[in-house]
Structures are given as structure tokens and as C-alpha cells.
Design a protein that fits this description.
Elements (H helix, E strand, L loop, with lengths): L2 H13 L13 E5 L34 E5 L1 E2 L12 E2 L5 H15 L3 E7 L6 E5 L1 E4 L28 E4 L4 H10 L5 E5 L9 H15 L11 E7 L5 H20 L7 H18 L1
Parallel strand pairs: 1-2, 1-5, 5-10, 6-9
Antiparallel strand pairs: 3-4, 6-10, 7-8
Helix pairs in contact: 1-6, 2-4, 3-5
Amino acid sequence: MCACNLVRTAVLAVCGAAAIPAAGAYTNNILITGYWPPTNEMIRPFSQNPAQNPSGWQGGNWENRGYNIFSYFPEFPGINSPPYGRGQGDFEVDYQDASADFWRVVGDLQPVAIITFSRGGVNNSSWELESRARKLPLNSWTPDYLAPTRPTPDLPIASEPDNFIRFSSLPMVEIRDAVAAAGLGINAFIDSSNNFGGTFVSEFTSYHSSWYANLHSDPSDPAWCVAGGHIHVGGSTSVAASTLATQVTLRTLIDHVDSIVPAPGGCSLFASTLLLAARRRRHV
């Protein structure tokens, strides 16, 4: 019997058969990702990697709200200012790496919501909610740092129509207003300009977060995902302010998720966490 089935058996024994509904199910997992600072630093408390977060994971049943928060991001050792380059680890600033990591992680987590973050303008403190992202022709993306420097035909995104637009399903107005009301000195706004997400790995990842939510938008989908989108964080935003803005954003997102899905119970949260652990063991 595989590890996942063993865990399911244990959960059913503890919580009863209703703990893992066969249809209309969803996990209690929320995925957040980052790239260049401050977007890696501000989500560090939600990493389960002890090398990246020696203080310990803070995402389990975060603030007793019934959701597990998981973060993934690269490191930039020895680099304290731009240009940061590709980075090392999960979600490196690289199309092939970002694609592989994204599909691996969502396969493990089956998140009910996703926010991807990346660094925006250098000279501002901002929280820019991207309203939409494009699938550009493969040769139209800005080159990254390691050959092949653009998305390649073997990536899943290559099957998407050129110039197709996917829209954020995050509660953008509510997040904007909540961050603005928090008094953090951050200019929060929704970007609906024709610049989209900028033709680099940021927009590439932005497209993926909205795409995944679209793929799993059916409430009968066992991997039901109700929200996905991207936020650019201004390069002058301090780690302290951006960390608090992340918390405000997550609280707002959870309120939105709670308005759509049934309230998570203790056993379903327990099941979600144990099943994720089983999936991870299969990758070791």
C-alpha cells in the first residue's frame, strides 16, 4: 500500500469517513511564491525548508484560520542589491526551473488558492496587483540568465494559445483596500495597464497562478482552487513592511476563500497536512 493510502486509512480511523470527501473536496493549503527581495524574505516564515527558515514553519493552521500556508522561493547568497540574477533553489528566475517547480509543487499541495509574488519597480514602495497575464509567443519573452533563455516547446505553457490572456481571480479590490488601510506606507493598486506583467519570469509565473486556478475552478474538482493571481512588490518596500502586507493579504485572501468554500474542519486540515507529507516522501 502506498504512503498516501496508509495515511488516508489512518485519517479515516481518527476522523471518520467524512474527513476526506470523494467529490467537491479541496485542500486547506495556500501556496505563495517569491523571487527577488523583498519577495523571498517576506514569505520566509511560511517555508518548511529548515535551511531557509531555521526559526520553524509558521504556516500550519495559520492564526487558527484553518489553512496551511506554504512558501517557496530562491536564495541570492552574497548579493545584497540588484542585479540579483537567477538565484538558487526553488523558483529560480528561470523559465524552465519556474515551470518545473510550479507544476511539482501544485501537484503536491493541490492548493485552494495561490499568490505568486515578484519584485516590481526599484524606486517605489508598492503592492501592485496584476489583473491579468499573457501567454506570449515563446520567442517573445525577455531572456533569462541560463540557456535556453526563453520558454521552450517542451514546457506545458507552450500548448497555450499565443497572446491568450488569463485574469487574476484574487480578491484584488479587497486586498488593495486592506493593504492601503494598514498604514504601512505602501502604495497598493490594481494594474490593468497594457504593460501586463512585464514579459519576464514574473508574468510567466503570474500566468501560471491564474491558469492553475482556471484549470481547477470546478467545485466538483478534488483539487478545487478558488483564487490565483500575482502581486508585484516595489523594490523599495522594506522587508518589515512587506512582511506585514503579506499577512494582511493572506487574511483577506482567506476571508475570500471562506466566502466560497465550506468552513474547514479540524480533521480535514489534519488530513490535508498528512497527505501532503506522504506526497513529499514519495519525492525523497
